[in-house]
Specification:
alpha+beta; Enterococcus faecalis V583 fold; 18 strands; 5-stranded mixed sheet; 4-stranded antiparallel sheet; v583 fold
Length: 480
Amino acid sequence: MIAGGGLVHDGVRAVNIGLAGFADPIRAAGAPVVALDWRPPAAGDRELGLLLAWLEDDPGDRVGGAIAAANGRAVERILAAQPALVDVRLATEAIDGLAGRMLLHSGPPIDWDAMCGPVQGAAIGACLFEGWAETPAEARKLLDAGKIAFEPCHDHGAVGPMAGVVSPSMPVAVVENGAAGNRSFATLNEGLGKVLRFGAYEDAVLERLRWFVSTLGPALSTVLRAGGPIDLKAITAQALQMGDEGHNRNVAATALFTRTIAPTVATSLTSAVQAEVFTFLRGNDHFFLNLSMAACKAGLDAAAGIDGSTVVTAMSRNGVDFGIRLSGTGSTWFTAPVGVPDGLYFPGYGPEDANPDLGDSAITETFGIGGFAMAAAPAIVRFVGGTPADAIGFTRLMERITLARNSAYGLPSLGFSGTPTGIDARRVVETGVAPVINTGIAHRQAGVGQIGAGIARAPLACFELAVRAVARGYGIGVAA
């Protein structure tokens, strides 16, 4: 509008869409500019962009309406999950299909000779623990000869941190989703230092695992039989308001869990066992992590198998590949090479020592906590030199690729808004916003252990492959 002899009468106010440099001359002239974080859909890939348009929600369209309905059901099941710890049992008793000389591992399928150092080390340790070999050399000979079967934890309703190795004689937490009736499983957390999940298999590591079998596992099972199931959802919700995010920080959740079981421990176990259990829990701030992982797995498995859904039900890494699964594509893995996390290293270590990211623990982010709840735990971003504002920014960013908020997991710093939940593979591809994952950093050599912690991002290629598969399922003819 021309007013007062000019094009504008109250100054220029601009919105910049495109290159950031376009705004510089306007700022230099003293005018306010709002920079819109915009990028072409699917990073400018025309074919993929057209495919996304076909898959867009549209109640009046056969495909769009079906996807919207399928995703609605998937998200509803995730939000309705009621995970509870119901027992601790030997893996061979609890996990269907785990028997004989079989080991489960983290991430998508991988052969022995392709495994990274920490996973190979954990497999050697598991062979020694099971008594399949007497020495590391004998264990490696068995493994090299193909005498040990490997399958992903996720294929058996289980999850394992880092190397993720589960063997038949290991005690596992049994978590039941009261809303859907399905169960999930996770090993017991060993603590930090020299541990199997980082590929260590020295005598102290094996002795701790044997103590899990002889003492800790039976003790927890006795406590659960005497005191009843433990509501893991309630503990997680409270811990998020106490500075945890459910993945890399579990101090509050572990303390809450210990307080919950303490009265039953005191009345159902001998004084000697009580002392051992409490001493171990006091020294292991990460104990709740594995329970958190199993709780998230139980909720997401309930949302699996809904035809046509683009909701992500698993994200995991094996130290070589990153893999995802979608609700609507069943047990199919979509994989891409995994990178090294961006993080802070312990003294004496650096990126050249790091193994590419590994572990099933990204199930927490898949469910909507961990990196998606970073606003609850601003201390986490110190690993990458960030600020509390950055922590809130990560959570807000994840809202762009999710379909709902989980009101059960309110975040104080966001006015008790729920955590971003229900990753939509379409939104990831369209926005180019990769899911963020809080993670530990393992040394590339077996047994050295954790050398840092930081933030990883899922490779976008996994989601592009998954979206193409969904399109094929709907008969949309876009080439892979």
